[in-house]
């Protein structure tokens, strides 16, 4: 399973959504980019910085600073420290993480699937400060394996390989072909797992069945649809 959604809290997400979206990392990197014309050549890649944050463990201000300096080694650290204060960076992260809320169908689906005797794994792209959300929501013990990108040093959906999916299958002690990955992000939670040899379902909470779609991907609109899976189905 995937864990979080990264956009509109009521529409996107797999097991958990953030009811208070503060977007501290987005605002911080945007402000860094705004500073560049006055400080020298541009070329700050926000996506690269975001990937750095999600694959690096450590305190948020330290990781954010390293993400910037990895691309802009001459950027004044004093300016970064000023931005942290102006944006209430750490406070905003704490507020966002504390707002993690389970979707109504999450716990019931997980409990029922465990009741089928299936092994459950969670693989999530996230920065380190958000890991507390899983414990706060009370679902940590429902998983046999939990993997976070910041701790693994690798992300779902990266173009340089599918190692994180193989790693998850190995820790579950289940062949990739017998694993079923479920998540709301097409690239990370469907295309990536399939390319790594897994089966996958795309969870799209934005649509309601019955609906006709031209998507070639098997799609569900609620985790409640998973309870019809037979025990012979793949591990998740």
From TrEMBL:
Annotated TM spans: none
Listed Gene3D superfamilies: HAD superfamily/HAD-like
Name this polypeptide is given: HAD family hydrolase
InterPro entries (alphabetical): HAD-like_hydrolase (IPR051400), HAD-like_sf (IPR036412), HAD_sf (IPR023214)
Pfam families documented for this protein: Hydrolase
Keywords: Hydrolase, Magnesium
GO molecular function, one term: hydrolase activity
Residue stretches in coiled coil: none
Organism, as annotated: Pyrodinium bahamense
Top-level taxonomic group: Eukaryota
